[in-house]
Design a protein that fits this description.
Elements (H helix, E strand, L loop, with lengths): L2 H20 L14 E6 L10 E11 L1 E2 L2 E3 L6 E10 L4 E7 L3 H9 L11 E2 L7 H7 L7 E7 L4 E7 L5 E5 L4 E6 L11 E6 L4 E2 L6 E9 L6 E8 L5 E9 L9 E2 L3 E6 L2 E3 L1 H7 L2 H4 E3 L5 E7 L5 E6 L3 E11 L2 E9 L10 H4 L2 H6 L6 E8 L4 E6 L13 E4 L11 E6 L11 E6 L7 E3 L4 E3 L3 E4 L9 E9 L4 E8 L5 E6 L9 E6 L3
Antiparallel strand pairs: 1-6, 2-5, 2-36, 3-4, 4-7, 5-6, 8-9, 9-10, 10-11, 12-14, 13-14, 14-15, 15-16, 17-18, 18-21, 19-20, 21-22, 23-24, 24-25, 25-26, 27-28, 28-29, 29-30, 31-33, 32-33, 33-34, 34-35
Helix pairs in contact: 3-4
This protein binds 2-acetamido-2-deoxy-beta-D-glucopyranose (7 copies) and fe (ii) ion.
One 2-acetamido-2-deoxy-beta-D-glucopyranose binds next to loops.
Length: about 525
């Protein structure tokens, strides 16, 4: 090689180096990825366990605008569905496609964002005459969670995607075909003057049953007629049954809730729908009002009778209910709590795409809290968990998951995502294992410039330890600017295997592993 050539190579290398240091990798999680394909083989570094058979299905936003308009908030991006198949013979594949929702289809046709309710505003904003229609059309982009419900009559599973809405979309998970929208008949009856669209993206299984529970928030449009809350049993993707309904002074916004063998528990922060503002701004964030000095209300609903007990407690914004169980006449309920709902501003695209804004944003991470509800006295005590000097962020996580075999009962381990590990920069991410039994099993895993999301726990068959299992999460490798699927040992939080993916996976919200689905 001549001296000049060596110099040229060095110059190119250093330009490349400066370029890759300057380019913020985290923002790739919030950049459109329009790739669509089925069953591309992927390869793990090490052989996979023979028992691992099934599909990890996840969803999240993957396209952040259409034609002449953009979303401003990450949660509004058009939903995509991802499927990682483990064939049980050592082979794996990866598939992805957009959810072909009405908003996806219509937006594509009109080269603009269609008129549906969004989480935050769009840019440029919708013209005034299109806003009320957007609110009445409700949420359509079900990009938050995937679930399957067992249909006893058909003796088969039905797969759905959800957001915090009554409406869901059914899809076929192996081909990732959108089957269609399901707007189940409202089991509380048809009443005029209510908007019955707000529900939960996190149904919870009923104990000893193939059914699930959800709630419905019915916002009254008629002055002096009260809004209502209902607890509802999901018997299949199509069939709903009323468990309880009651009046509330103001209609709260909730994302998730808890279930024990005998109770469904809702935590309603003082965060209420303001229908006038909702119609004016056509987005959930500006249509909801936070009352910092008011109390929150816990509703304890007896599943058998539909009786509702009401308990007041200190305010705070619950993000995700983790698990709940009964202990004598107490309910123990663990929830990831934010100080207030303004935390969600951190997910504005402008902030997420700028390291400076991520660093300067006013953002206090969520904290895991335990609510002990004393049913005899109908009061509640709130407690926090002991800190850990090795992992100072150990109690400040969200996106919790557990070993599902321990749902509804006493359990010890929560796996979650800490988003401000260095206490400076939102996006300095760590995966945590929180021991809520206080037996010194806290643990965590993090790699600089690697960005994992919400995990899913898969138990090792026939194991007896709660943490005998693996965790799966897609990770963005910021150095390589590529995504991989990471496998962790849930016992130690040590990374044990990974497979780089043929396409970069933007931020995904939630997902589940469905065993035997391939
Ligand atoms: C939408 O966002 C993209 C990517 O940030 C940008 O290039 C485009 O100009 C934006 N369009 C509008 C209408 O704001
Ligand atoms: C595993 O099964 C899948 C689906 O039947 C097949 O495509 C793949 O080739 C098999 N792999 C091996 C190693 O046999
Ligand atoms: C959207 O269009 C696709 C065809 O491109 C169709 O299969 C799908 O059912 C449509 N979705 C809705 C909700 O109508
Ligand atoms: C749930 O089922 C288990 C075993 O099938 C049984 O022992 C238990 O009593 C049941 N619990 C309730 C609350 O029905
Ligand atoms: C609640 O009352 C029941 C009997 O009515 C009693 O067995 C139980 O110990 C009480 N629990 C608490 C937490 O006070
Ligand atoms: C709840 O009620 C029980 C029984 O009356 C009482 O012992 C306990 O102190 C109360 N706790 C709170 C936080 O008020
Ligand atoms: C788990 O136990 C069942 C029943 O005892 C047995 O059939 C199965 O092979 C076991 N699975 C594994 C992976 O050991
Ligand atoms: Fe969620």
């Amino acid at each position: 090689m001549t001296y000049d050539l060596v110099l040229a190579v060095l110059v190119i290398l250093s330009i490349h180096f400066v370029y890759s240091v300057q380019q913020d990798a985290y923002s790739l999680l919030f950049t459109d990825n329009k790739d669509v394909f089925l069953n591309k083989p992927i390869h793990f570094q090490y052989p996979l366990p023979k028992w691992l058979r099934g599909s990890l299905v996840r969803t999240g936003p993957a396209m952040f605008g259409m034609g002449k308009r953009n979303f401003t908030h990450a949660f509004d991006g058009f939903g995509k569905i991802y499927n990682w198949k483990f064939y049980g013979n050592g082979s794996t594949s990866f598939s992805q496609d957009f959810l072909r929702s009405e908003t996806y289809n219509v937006s594509g046709e009109i080269k603009d964002i269609a008129n549906f309710l969004t989480f935050e505003s769009v840019s440029p904003p919708f013209p005034l005459d299109r806003r009320e229609i957007s609110v009445l059309n409700g949420f359509d982009n079900t990009n938050v969670n995937v679930y399957r419900l067992f249909n006893q009559e058909k003796e088969s599973y039905e797969y759905i995607t959800l957001t915090d809405a009554w409406k869901v979309y059914q899809f076929e998970p192996t081909s990732i075909n959108t089957i269609g929208e399901i707007d189940p008949p409202n089991p509380r009856g048809t009443y005029i003057g209510f908007i019955d669209t707000m529900s939960s993206a996190h149904p919870v299984p009923e104990h000893n049953s193939s059914y699930h529970f959800t709630f419905l928030t019915s916002v009254s449009l008629i002055p002096k007629v009260k809004s209502r809350l209902s607890v509802i049993r999901m018997k299949s993707a199509f069939d709903r049954e009323l468990v309880a309904q009651w009046e509330v002074d103001k209609a709260p916004y909730m994302h998730s809730f808890s279930v024990t063998p005998r109770y469904v528990i809702l935590f309603a922060a003082a965060y209420y729908t303001n229908i006038g503002k909702m119609l004016k701004y056509a987005n959930a964030y500006e249509g909801l009002e936070w009352f910092p000095s008011e109390k929150a209300t816990i509703y304890v609903v007896e599943i058998k009778t539909g009786n509702v007990h009401t308990i007041q407690t200190e305010n705070g914004f619950p993000s995700h209910h983790v698990n709940a169980y009964e202990d004598n006449n107490k309910i123990i309920m663990d929830v990831t709590m934010f100080q207030d709902p303004a935390y969600s501003k951190i997910y504005e695209l402008e902030t997420l795409r700028s390291p400076t804004k991520r660093q300067n944003a006013q953002y206090t991470p969520s904290e895991i809290k335990r609510y002990s509800i004393n049913l005899n006295a109908t009061n509640v005590t709130v407690s926090t968990f002991s800190p850990n000097s090795i992992f100072p962020f150990i109690n400040n996580f969200d996106f919790p998951c557990i070993n599902e075999m321990y749902r509804h009962r006493k359990y010890c381990y929560i796996y979650g995502v800490a988003t401000k590990r260095n206490n400076k920069l939102f996006s300095s991410t760590a995966l945590v294992k929180k021991d809520v039994c206080g037996t010194n099993q806290d643990s965590a895993f993090a790699l600089d410039n690697h960005y994992p999301v919400d995990m899913w726990f898969i138990p090792i068959p026939n194991s007896t330890r709660e943490d005998d299992g693996i965790l799966l999460t897609p990770v963005l490798d910021g150095d390589k600017r590529q995504s991989y699927l990471l496998m962790l040992d849930a016992n130690t939080m040590a990374p044990i295997n990974r497979a780089y993916l043929p396409s970069l996976v933007p931020f995904t919200m939630h997902g589940r592993f469905f065993s035997d689905l391939i």
